[in-house]
Design a protein that fits this description.
GO terms for molecular function: hydrolase activity, acting on glycosyl bonds. It is globular and about 80 Å long. Helices cover about 35% and strands about 15% of the residues. The protein starts with a helix and ends in an 8-residue tail after the last strand. It is built from 16 helices and 21 strands. The strands form eight sheets. Strands 5-4-3-2-1-15 form a six-stranded parallel beta sheet.
């Protein structure tokens, strides 16, 4: 039998190895569109980007004023060659060289340009230019080579997902016949050869409103959900965005290029990465009734389900915060490509009032900010703001959990609360006790990478787990025994005196279950947290009580300020 001290050394060594094997987190940025009549000047926008912790920005042109404003900021930049330039760019390498000199080389390296997007959704917006797309990409890259910039600046082109003939299940993903061999095969070979990646415009929002009876809202938003299984591969998908990304990976593999891997190969290193250069969710508006489909027809979109609009502040906030947290946490892989690196760019930086066909067009309301530079809803791009918890892995087994629990309690975790009589002793369950100890150890060590693994007995999550217990993080919940009348009066008082009760309004994310106990718990807790959890702020004449374990009400966990670092 291994001595305890030896076991600890092995465990610590394993943690260190696991720590150093993790990939760095990807980049989360924004798309800076300028189709608005009331947008701030570029210098003000750059100050906003820096203040907000946004470290990467994608442009829809190569606007010299914007690029100069971004100089010496350290912000990474992606520029775009507009569709109307494609024909000339494909026809003459000299034209490509002049464009790259005037729009990239003159600004680099003061402005950290890292990518040139050649065209924008050409197959969808300018089908007649399809034959010129890859030749234009080749000529732009050749210009970068000639100027010695090809190592720093890559070339790609963003595709709308209408380039896929099939996208579900993801393993059936394939490109349309009219572009697969003639355009996509040489494009993917070019991307692989030059060390670039495929950009896609991925919008779960539009897929959801096209089929709200088949796609769940939580699945579209990336919220916790039961998931959907691809029966061909056995892979489970908990995010529609992941399904769209993997469908694109499978489509690339089906091109069966001699320089690429086939779909049934385990070696996927030759396939370029797939990055969502555009993705987002609108906070308001109505979609275009009959958008184009690959076959030229259209489908009527449902702007609302059960009377609740899909385009809402709550849904936009959930989708985009899920994206931000995912990328900042380093969880950039997909079910099919779990180790994939990935950068994402949220559409868009601002609401843009000149987009779309009418004043309430959904295209105008994808922004994170209003044109006056105030937030449409709360979000945070700063990595330090990302909340995380360490939880036990039930599949590790009882022996491994106990060994890891003992190690955590002996090396900095405060395990007093899980001793008999402690605040978090109940439930008397090894899995719950281990989660408490692991989380305490993880935060005691500043949430450093590698401090939540315990030889596979634990893992990090970015949504507070239901039942999470913390003696320093209390919540206020409704006391059902107080009766509906007392609860309603206390609920009304809380909502009128500082509680944020928007989430429990109809169509709000915490409206269900629609009963006074659930709504009162949400309102009481909001009031209690906003009052700094001061004594007496969770009583409501006996209608409320303090708890230390995170209660789940419907799909909503009552928030706590603890662990939010």
């Amino acid at each position: 039998m291994m001595a305890p001290s030896r076991l600890i050394v092995v465990l610590v060594s394993t943690l260190a190895l696991l720590f150093f094997s993790h990939a760095e987190a990807g980049e989360i940025g924004v798309n800076y569109g300028m189709v608005g009549g009331d947008l701030p000047d570029p210098a003000s926008v750059v100050r906003l980007l820096r203040k907000s912790g946004i470290t990467s920005v994608r442009l829809y042109d190569a606007n010299a004023t914007v690029l100069k404003a971004l100089a010496n900021t350290g912000i990474k930049v992606m520029v775009m060659l507009p569709n109307h330039e494609l024909a000339a760019m494909a026809a003459a390498p000299s034209h490509a060289l002049r464009w790259v000199r005037s729009n990239v080389a003159v600004h680099y390296p003061a402005t950290q340009i890292g990518l040139v997007d050649v065209g924008n959704e050409v197959f969808l917006k300018d089908k007649n230019l399809t034959p010129q797309l890859v030749p234009a990409m080749i000529n732009v890259h050749a210009a970068l080579v000639r100027l010695g910039l090809d190592a720093a600046v890559k070339v790609s082109t963003p595709l709308a997902l209408t380039a896929l003939e099939e996208s579900w299940p993801p393993s059936s993903g394939r490109f349309r016949d009219d572009i697969a061999q003639s355009v996509m095969k040489p494009m993917v070979d070019f991307l692989r050869r030059t060390g670039s990646y495929l950009s896609i415009s991925a919008y779960p929002f539009f897929a959801y409103i096209a089929q709200p009876d088949k796609i769940s809202l939580d699945y579209a938003l990336g919220n916790p959900n039961p998931g959907v299984r691809d029966d061909n591969t056995g892979l489970m998908y908990h995010s529609l965005l992941d399904a769209q990304l993997d469908a694109t990976y499978f489509a690339m593999e089906k091109l069966e290029s001699a320089s690429m891997v086939l779909a049934d190969s385990k070696d996927t290193s030759a396939t370029p990465g797939v990055y969502p250069s555009e993705t987002g969710f609108p906070s308001y508006g109505r979609p275009t009734p009959t958008p184009p489909s690959p076959s030229g027809g259209g489908r009527r979109l449902r702007a609302a389900r059960d009377g609740c609009p899909a385009a809402s502040v709550a849904n936009a906030q959930a989708y985009n915060n899920n994206l931000i947290n995912r990328v900042l946490s380093g969880a950039t892989g997909t079910p099919y490509r779990p180790d994939a690196d990935m950068d994402m760019h949220i559409f868009a930086l601002f609401n843009e009032n000149l987009k779309g066909d009418r004043p309430d067009d959904v295209e105008q309301f994808f922004g994170l900010f209003y044109p006056n530079m105030t937030k449409v809803y709360e979000f945070d791009f700063h990595r330090a703001a990302l909340a995380s918890w360490c939880v036990s892995n039930a599949s590790a087994g009882a022996a491994a959990l106990q060994a890891a629990l003992d190690y955590a309690c002996g090396h900095g975790a405060d395990c007093g609360a899980i001793q008999p009589g402690g605040t978090c002793f109940e439930p008397k369950d090894k899995l719950a006790h281990a989660s408490y100890a692991f989380n305490s150890y993880y935060h005691h060590n500043g949430r450093a990478r590698g401090t939540c693994d315990f030889h596979g007995a634990a893992y990090v999550v970015y949504h507070e787990p239901a039942g999470n217990c913390d003696p320093n993080a209390s919540r206020c919940v409704a006391n059902a025994a107080a009766g509906e009348k007392a609860l309603q009066e206390a609920l009304d008082y809380a909502c009128a005196n500082g509680a944020d009760c928007s989430a429990i309004q109809r169509c709000g994310p915490c409206f269900q279950p629609n009963n006074v106990v659930a709504h009162a718990s949400y309102a009481f807790n909001s009031y209690y947290q906003r009052k700094g959890r001061a004594r007496g702020t969770c009583d409501f004449a006996g209608a409320g009580s303090v708890v230390y374990r995170a209660p789940k009400i419907g799909k909503c966990l009552l928030p706590s300020k603890a662990w939010i670092l």
